[in-house]
Design goal:
With about 400 residues, the protein is α/β, with parallel strands linked by helices. Helix content is about 35%, strand content about 15%. The chain folds into two domains: about 15-260, Type I PLP-dependent aspartate aminotransferase-like (Major domain) (Aspartate Aminotransferase, domain 2), CATH 3.40.640.10; about 265-390, Aspartate Aminotransferase, domain 1 (Alpha-Beta Complex), CATH 3.90.1150.10. A seven-stranded mixed sheet has the order 1-9-8-5-4-2-3, with helices on both faces. The radius of gyration is 22 Å and the shape is globular. The structure holds pyridoxal-5'-phosphate (PLP).
Length: about 400
């Protein structure tokens, strides 16, 4: 089906300066991975996010995989994870032996809260994954207080929430780990794939480079010939006396060169998305059956623009928007406990009524940065028309 306004897989266009930064790196980067652009991207990201240690990765899932390794789960440890999130927020931890306890979201903010986390605590709780879904940063000060009270490791999945802040601190700067994505659909993308892992503990910081890059390290004794016994050493990164198997989760130099430039633009991209979200939400205020989450501060970057239909007509709305108006609205974040994979693994039970209610009635509008003012106006008029038709059908 051809849409006038598709739910595109691409979030934004590149400006000439970004394209030329890529072309320059294509000409001069040597090597094409693990070089000066990576170092600069990581340093600039630390400055931007107000953190000490940040490591580029090939995607956010790789960042989550390393965070999961560094948690060092024992069989039977529990991890609290929202059921309403993207699958990669969860499975890296389950692969490492943790058992998920699915936490419910708040119906208005669509993220987990200190209260919903508290309900999931067990004697075996070891960690929490806090997902700043749709680009809204959860109440991290309250969640960190709860985590400290119970000695829990906190992983912030800020894949969708770069640049958001609460009480003057940015998403990913609160927890033991902060995870970011530069995937094709995110507010900034490093050519389709890319990620960052922020760690708080200096001991983790010492381990991540080896964990990320095949266990490569220097020989710890002086050598007369740089090629004897080998060009470089390979060893286990060690944490708490335990050897960790390494990975190759590196991001290439071209992507890093682009990431450096994109960090100059992230605030303006986020601000523009938020401004447009306010305009769209306010223009539909006379249709309260479509319930948005309105936040006019940097706490939200409106990576996505979801709404909940409160009159049970979600599917009729999406169908008319698609067939009559050519606007491709979608439904996102099937509660993870409903997926075959999690059910087969024995993790199909959840007590998350808000997540279920939200998912079963949610609509996600196309909301890409590349959309023109005319596109947005068209989508607004289409929405008003379909909502009016649905009222008449009541
Ligand atoms: C909340 C969340 N976590 C993790 C990821 C994984 O990101 P990546 O595609 O960079 O691995 C995504 C990507 O869609 C996401 O939305």
């Amino acid at each position: 089906m051809k849409f006038i306004l598709p739910f595109s897989g691409r979030s934004h266009q590149y400006c000439e300066e970004e394209i030329s930064a890529v072309a320059t790196a294509m000409r001069d980067a040597d090597p094409l991975t693990q070089g000066k652009y990576r170092t600069e991207f990581e340093r600039k990201f630390c400055d931007y996010n107000g953190v000490e240690f940040a490591y580029t990765t090939c995607n956010a899932t790789a960042s989550l995989e390393m965070a999961a390794q560094l948690c060092q789960f024992s069989h039977g440890d529990d991890i609290i994870i929202p059921s309403h999130t993207f699958t990669a927020s969860a499975y890296p931890f389950l692969k490492k032996g943790a058992r998920p306890i699915w936490a419910d979201i708040d119906l208005t903010t669509r993220v987990i809260t200190a209260e919903s986390i508290r309900k999931c605590l067990t004697a075996r709780s070891k960690a929490i994954v806090v997902v700043h879904l749709y680009g809204f940063i959860a109440d991290m000060p309250a969640i960190m207080e709860l985590a400290r009270e119970h000695g829990l490791i906190v992983i912030e999945d800020a894949a969708q929430a770069i640049g958001t802040e609460i009480e003057g601190r940015k998403a990913g700067a609160f927890g033991d780990f902060g995870v970011f994505s530069f995937h094709s659909h995110k507010n900034i993308t490093t050519l389709g794939e890319g990620g960052m892992l922020v760690v708080k503990n200096p001991e983790y910081a010492g381990i991540v480079p080896m964990l990320r890059h095949n266990g490569h390290c220097a020989f710890d004794y002086p050598r007369e010939d740089y090629w004897i016994p080998a060009m470089g050493n390979v060893d286990f990164p060690i944490l708490n006396g335990q050897d960790l198997w390494p990975n190759n989760y590196c991001l290439g130099e071209i992507e890093c060169a682009l990431g450096i430039k994109l960090l100059d633009r992230i605030d303006s991209i986020n601000d523009k998305k938020r401004e447009r979200a306010m305009w769209f939400i306010d223009a539909l205020a006379d249709f309260p059956e479509l319930e948005f989450h309105r936040v006019d501060t940097r706490r939200h970057n409106y990576h996505l623009l979801p709404a909940r239909m409160t009159n049970g007509k979600r599917d009729a709305f999406i169908r008319k928007m698609a067939l009559q108006k050519g606007v491709q609205c979608v439904v996102q974040y099937y509660p993870l406990n409903r997926y075959d994979m999690y059910q087969k693994a024995g993790f199909g039970a959840a007590d998350c009524p808000n997540a279920d209610l939200f998912f079963d009635n949610m609509i996600s509008f196309p909301f890409h940065h590349w959309m023109s003012e005319a596109d947005l106006e068209y989508m607004l008029e289409a929405s008003r028309s379909v909502l009016t038709q649905l009222r008449l059908q009541a």
